[in-house]
Write a structure and sequence with these properties.
Helices cover 26% and strands 19% of the residues. The protein is built from 13 helices and 17 strands.
Length: 458
């Protein structure tokens, strides 16, 4: 591995990062400080009444936040052209955090006593499980048409399938008593969602103890599913902080190596804390944290990895809408530089992946300039890169839960919404292969999330 890598070591039941050597990233990396999908306004809390014998959860409303008018004005001008009629409803969702839905991803490395039963009792249902019940609402089942390859479909029951409800809300904050061994912990990505904008209570970080679940925007799991990581592969998470997608990767499979890259020191500390909170100590030899500028992998790690995820820094729509006016104006000035940075990161990823390997590019913005246009620019520069169609693999099977659209000529210049049935013809096929976009809509408030999968030709 590179001499710029950080190693994660276990010490006194915690994980720490030991610096070997770092490069100071140039100015554009300051944009990485934006966190995707931040700031829930409705939080579910366990009923903590004295003597309570149920697992009721209650709503707690935070004070409503005001939107940043400069950012909103910019979005209105751009997205009304790119999304057409979809923008009005997407705008309404983004401006109403109380409507946002949240997913609960279970942690296979923790003892999740009673969590599934509590979730189900509160009306949560399974969205994803690459075990026996994968995408049960569509024809895309395990096998030929599966969302995940056949060897990803676990024949083992979920970790807590043998457990019974304990009758109290104590399991929500239960400390880890013992870790399942790596050999007995089946790769199984399980995510629960609720039809209402409710959020399961957060668990505090406690050194040496694993959290039982990760709260997230469920659309952020789609790039990980598109990556289709297999056991024994070498995987690079190029823009890894705060670490949710790295945790999701480790729920799907047990790679030989997962390199989590983050050049910003503060976000890298956050990343290390996330890994410590969710990953088994038995994985310390498989998971490392890198401090490289992501653009440098083109030279330092060429052809090293089987799979690379580029969850690129972007004009994070959810976060930017709620920043201060002065900060919003500054971000809008910097926004024009983002596509060039994103294209550099994607080119670096294509160099870091081996011939025949796969790169998934993703953002949490609706902007076509940072999504489809970036992918098309890199494809034009890299003849060895071949885009792959995610519409039938992900868009159609999960359309019950997410509102998808794919690219079209002009990348949004003309309002256009694709039907669920792919259109015939080479032009339609090409624009499907540029990627798919998740647009927040009432009742399906997930996103924004863009994802594109590109294979490096052998």
């Amino acid at each position: 591995m590179s001499k710029y890598m950080f190693s994660i070591h276990q010490s006194s039941s915690t994980w720490r990062i030991t610096s070997l050597k770092t490069k100071k990233p140039s100015r554009p990396w300051c944009l990485w400080s934006v966190n995707c999908h931040s700031g829930p306004e409705v939080v579910l809390q366990p009923n903590e009444r004295q003597g309570a014998h149920n697992n009721q959860v209650t709503k707690r409303h935070k004070k409503a936040r005001s939107s940043c008018l400069p950012v909103l004005g910019c979005f209105d001008q751009q997205y009304s052209q790119e999304l057409g009629d979809l923008w009005a409803s997407a705008r309404a969702v983004l401006l109403d955090p109380r409507s946002w839905q949240y997913g609960v991803m279970l942690n296979r490395f923790s003892t999740v006593t009673g969590i599934t039963q509590i979730l189900q009792s509160q009306g949560f249902s399974m969205l994803l499980c690459n075990g026996p019940s994968t995408v049960s609402h569509s024809k895309y089942q395990a096998g030929k048409d599966s969302l995940l390859p056949p060897d990803h479909i676990s024949k083992c029951p979920p970790n807590d399938s043998h457990l019974q409800p304990d009758g109290t809300s104590r399991a929500l904050g239960q400390d880890l008593q013992s870790e399942p061994s790596l050999s007995s912990s089946c790769p199984t990505l399980q995510c629960y969602i609720h039809p209402c904008p409710l959020r399961f209570p957060s668990q505090a970080h406690r050194p040496g103890q694993l959290k039982q679940y990760y709260l997230l925007n469920a659309a952020s799991l789609l790039p990980v599913l598109a990556l289709k990581v297999r056991d024994g592969e070498k995987v690079l998470d190029l823009c890894s902080a705060p670490g949710g997608k790295a945790v999701a990767i480790m729920q799907c499979a047990t790679p030989a190596l997962l390199c989590c890259n983050e050049p910003d020191p503060h976000r890298r500390d956050w990343l290390a804390k996330t890994l410590e909170s969710f990953l088994s100590q038995s994985l310390t030899s498989r998971v490392i944290v890198s401090a490289q500028d992501g653009r440098s992998f083109v030279n330092s790690e060429a052809g090293t990895y089987d799979k690379v995820l580029v969850d690129a820094p972007c004009s994070n729509d959810r976060s930017w809408l709620y920043c201060g006016s002065q900060q919003g104006e500054q971000r809008l000035k910097e926004r024009a530089r983002l596509p060039a940075l994103q294209a550099q990161l994607l080119r670096s990823a294509l160099s870091a992946v081996r011939p025949g390997g796969v790169v998934v590019y993703s953002t949490c913005t609706l902007s076509s300039f940072e999504n489809f246009a970036v992918v098309e620019t890199v494809l034009n520069d890299c003849p060895e890169a071949e885009p792959e169609d995610l519409w039938e693999e992900i868009g159609i099977p999960l359309s019950k839960y997410f509102t998808f659209r794919s690219a079209h000529p002009g990348h949004g210049q003309t309002p256009h919404k694709l039907s669920l049935q792919p259109q015939d013809g080479p032009s339609s096929s090409y624009h499907h292969r540029l990627g798919i976009l998740v647009i927040p809509q009432p009742g399906k408030t997930w996103g924004p999330m863009f994802l594109s999968r590109i294979r490096r030709r052998k």
